[in-house]
């Protein structure tokens, strides 16, 4: 079996459970496979298909994916075809004949096809050795994607009683699992549930402040990689996509309000790497099977943990390091609550509220994110994941006794009837109306926490909830209360240590990983040749080789067929068809830079598993939008608006860029300043350090903003 694995797929080892599942299928037993996205489900029916005599039929609802799946199999030298509504009658006939001649090992069909008695009769005349039902949860009304056509799949176990059936899904709940077994009529199936822990995914949550700026920072970090940004509304997707485009990125919006053709085009462009960033509502995803998405951002809050898990699951299907980042703000939660209130059915509303609260808890928890998520899916993670922002943040502890006393007192003094944000406002001495109207600006706790930012105090409150000194009472507006443990703490003058909050930008830094092992320049060249070959064959890039393969090439530098064949993902067919052109690139590169190929062996490979692209995030990356927009000669007001900044912030960006020696051509801005020369003269007289004298020198007729702009221009 291992020989087949290398020969056709180019892999050396099975992923967890694949071998066991395949063994069972070959013994002609029914099986049910629950594996997360990217776990490697396809291989569980593709490998038996090669081993067994006859045709393997794969039922999948994802018509849009069938062509890519078939192209990938063909590139590996496996006879595969699909039949669905996108084909013309004659094309279907041709495929049917090829199947009859035994040229096709794997045939993909849409479930609709099975309602046709013609198709079924045809199928019965064939030697079918295996039936695979992909996305099997579609058969269950308990699942999140029920498809009535799936109900007709019952017929398989009646009409093809001897043929083993393998049902596969990434949905793990108990109800769905039982329903699949029942609906399909599986015979004493072995159920394989693999861990839903996606080790290659890094998860983090950022407070949603300066969100666009952070988004750009993240995208910069994943430069030239595929990114999905999930938004709340159609309008938001369009706005963000537009802003990203203005900032010089290749981005497109996707939502259910777009024409079908437009949606298809956007999807196609994404799969073919013509568009790198998709800004979408949740409508985007079901039809996406792109293995190399490296970043999924929830720009707005997800509605449920299930959908969140599914959406982040679209990152890193190929097993390479990827990340999921969620921007969290209470404002977004409110938006969801507003919609919740519109749900008329009381029970439905209740369920939706509960689900929303679970997401809030997840965001606010001070525990390992993956532990929390997996616990939600009834799986226990024994150790902390070491790959979420909580686990990775500097777990430096300090004596937090004083800040704890302050927070607890503020909750008590404000009457234990307010939520977190109000308590924090009081502590930090906010002048907001609500604080004043309640007379809280007169309290002794008003403004006693000046040395911590809002997010930092927020971090402490969460930690104190975790430590059991505070509890949050759920409701429409969750309020904070001091627990009896908290009261005892105050009374007995207890001591407590907490972890220090990490600044969120610093946290972004932590998410960046360490080693750049492979040769990035060679990797870029390999990507270029891959893209040319993909175009010639009219297939997506990943059908030729996945990033995992290219990175191994750029790490091990194979220069002959023998060593090239050892690269992961290189099977016999690809070795024959593609090796020469990739080898030519590697050989030339190795020669030019006098590099030495590394021996490829398994131990070395797992020890040096090439990690995903980890460029060090330059501090200037934060000002890139401003820089790009200046290059496009955009007005300052527009630059500010796109990023949701004030003008002064943009001026500071410009200053920083100039300080760093960046060449900016700002002359076009002078033209917009009617009084530039006057201001310049005033600067000569009064200096530029302070603005007030200049303002006065100009008879207080020219605004501070104009003077500030002029100051940046003359510098
Ligand atoms: P799923 O259908 O569970 O989402 P796929 O079958 O698409 O996952 O597999 C995800 C990725 O993992 C693919 O890029 C596939 O080539 C790769 N893969 C699967 N099995 C192995 C293996 N044994 N070794 C290396 N890579 C594998």
Structure description:
By secondary structure, the chain is of the alpha/beta class. It folds into 5 domains: about 1-195, Rossmann fold (3-Layer(aba) Sandwich), CATH 3.40.50; about 200-390, 3-Layer(aba) Sandwich (Rossmann fold), CATH 3.40.50; about 415-495, Arc Repressor Mutant, subunit A (Orthogonal Bundle), CATH 1.10.10; about 520-605, HRDC domain (DNA polymerase, domain 1), CATH 1.10.150; about 615-715, Orthogonal Bundle (Arc Repressor Mutant, subunit A). About 50% of the residues lie in helices and about 10% in strands. The chain is built from 36 helices and 17 strands. The strands form 4 sheets. A 7-stranded parallel beta sheet has the order 3-4-2-5-6-1-7, with helices on both faces. Strand 15 (about 470-475) and strand 16 (about 480) form a beta hairpin. The longest helix has 19 residues, at about 345-365. The chain binds adenosine-5'-diphosphate. Adenosine-5'-diphosphate binds next to loops.
Strands, helices and their partners?
Elements: H1 2-9, H2 18-26, E1 31-34, H3 43-51, E2 55-59, H4 63-75, E3 80-83, H5 89-100, E4 106-109, H6 117-124, E5 128-133, H7 155-159, E6 165-169, H8 174-184, E7 190-193, E8 201-207, H9 211-221, E9 226-230, H10 234-246, E10 251-254, H11 260-271, E11 277-280, E12 293-298, H12 305-312, E13 322-328, H13 330-341, H14 346-364, H15 369-376, H16 389-392, E14 397-399, H17 401-413, H18 420-427, H19 433-437, H20 454-466, E15 470-473, E16 479-482, H21 484-491, E17 497-499, H22 504-511, H23 520-537, H24 541-544, H25 547-556, H26 561-564, H27 572-577, H28 579-592, H29 602-607, H30 624-631, H31 636-643, H32 647-659, H33 667-672, H34 676-686, H35 691-697, H36 704-714
Parallel strand pairs: 1-6, 1-7, 2-4, 2-5, 3-4, 5-6, 8-13, 9-11, 9-12, 10-11, 12-13
Antiparallel strand pairs: 14-17, 15-16
Helix pairs in contact: 2-3, 13-14, 17-18, 18-20, 23-25, 23-28, 30-31, 32-36, 34-36
Bound molecules: adenosine-5'-diphosphate.
């Amino acid at each position: 079996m291992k020989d087949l694995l290398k020969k056709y797929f180019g892999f050396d080892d099975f992923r967890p459970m694949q071998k066991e599942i395949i063994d069972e299928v070959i013994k002609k037993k029914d099986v049910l496979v629950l594996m997360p996205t990217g776990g490697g489900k396809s291989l569980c029916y593709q490998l038996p298909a090669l081993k067994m005599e006859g045709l393997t039929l794969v039922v999948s609802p994802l018509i849009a994916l069938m062509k890519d799946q078939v192209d990938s199999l063909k590139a590996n030298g496996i006879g595969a075809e699909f039949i669905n509504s996108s084909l013309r009658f004659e094309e279907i006939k041709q495929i049917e004949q090829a199947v009859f001649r035994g040229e096709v090992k794997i045939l993909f069909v849409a479930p609709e096809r099975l309602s046709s008695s013609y198709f079924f009769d045809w199928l019965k005349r064939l030697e079918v050795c295996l039936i695979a039902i992909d996305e099997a949860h579609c058969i269950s009304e308990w699942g999140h994607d029920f498809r009535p056509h799936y109900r007709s799949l019952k017929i398989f176990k009646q009409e093809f009683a001897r043929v083993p059936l393998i049902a596969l899904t990434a949905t793990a709940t108990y109800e769905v699992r039982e329903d699949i077994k029942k609906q399909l009529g599986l015979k004493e199936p072995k159920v394989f549930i693999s861990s839903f822990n996606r080790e290659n995914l890094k998860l983090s949550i950022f407070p949603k402040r300066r969100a666009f700026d952070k988004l750009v920072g993240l995208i910069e970090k994943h430069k030239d990689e595929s990114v999905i940004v999930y938004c709340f509304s159609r309008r938001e997707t369009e706005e963000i996509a537009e802003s990203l485009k203005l900032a010089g990125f290749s981005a497109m919006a996707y939502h259910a309000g777009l024409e079908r053709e437009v949606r298809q085009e956007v999807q196609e462009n994404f799969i073919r790497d013509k568009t790198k960033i998709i800004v979408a509502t949740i409508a985007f995803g079901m039809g996406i099977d792109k293995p190399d998405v490296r970043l999924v951002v929830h720009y707005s809050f997800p509605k449920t943990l299930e959908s969140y898990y599914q959406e982040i699951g679209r990152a890193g299907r190929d097993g390479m390091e990827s990340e999921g980042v969620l921007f969290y703000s209470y404002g977004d939660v409110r938006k969801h609550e507003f919609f919740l209130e519109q749900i008329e059915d009381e029970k439905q509303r209740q369920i939706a509220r509960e689900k929303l609260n679970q997401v809030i808890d997840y965001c606010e928890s001070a525990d390992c994110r993956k532990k929390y998520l997996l616990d939600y899916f009834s799986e226990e993670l024994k150790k902390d994941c070491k790959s979420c922002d909580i686990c990775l943040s500097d777990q430096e502890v300090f004596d937090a006794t004083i800040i704890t006393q302050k927070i607890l007192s503020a909750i008590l003094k404000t009457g234990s009837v307010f939520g977190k944000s109000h308590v924090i406002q009081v502590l930090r001495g906010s002048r907001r109306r609500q604080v004043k109207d309640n007379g809280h600006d007169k309290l002794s706790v008003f403004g006693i926490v000046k040395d911590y930012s809002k997010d930092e105090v927020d971090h402490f409150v969460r930690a104190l909830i975790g430590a059991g000194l505070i509890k949050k009472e759920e409701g429409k507006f969750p309020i904070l209360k001091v627990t009896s443990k908290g009261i005892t703490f105050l009374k007995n003058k207890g001591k407590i240590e907490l972890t220090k909050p990490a600044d969120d930008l610093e946290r972004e830094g932590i998410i960046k990983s360490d080693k750049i092992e492979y040769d990035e320049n060679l990797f870029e060249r390999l990507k270029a040749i891959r893209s040319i070959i993909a175009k010639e064959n009219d297939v997506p890039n990943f059908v030729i080789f996945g990033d995992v393969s290219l990175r191994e090439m750029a790490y091990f530098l194979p220069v002959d067929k023998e060593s090239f064949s050892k690269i992961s993902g290189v099977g016999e067919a690809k070795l024959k068809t593609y090796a020469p052109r990739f080898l030519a690139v590697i050989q030339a590169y190795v020669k030019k830079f006098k590099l030495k190929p590394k021996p490829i062996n398994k131990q070395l490979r797992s020890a040096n598993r090439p990690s995903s692209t980890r460029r060090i995030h330059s501090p200037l990356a934060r000002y890139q939008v401003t820089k790009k927009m200046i290059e496009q000669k955009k007005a300052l007001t527009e630059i500010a608006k796109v990023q949701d900044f004030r003008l002064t912030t943009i001026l500071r960006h410009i200053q920083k860029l100039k300080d760093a020696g960046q060449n900016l051509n700002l002359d076009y801005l002078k033209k917009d300043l009617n009084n530039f020369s006057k201001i310049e003269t005033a600067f000569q007289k009064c200096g530029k350090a302070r603005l007030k004298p200049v303002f006065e020198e100009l008879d207080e007729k020219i605004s501070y903003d104009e003077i500030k702009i002029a100051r940046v221009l003359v510098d």
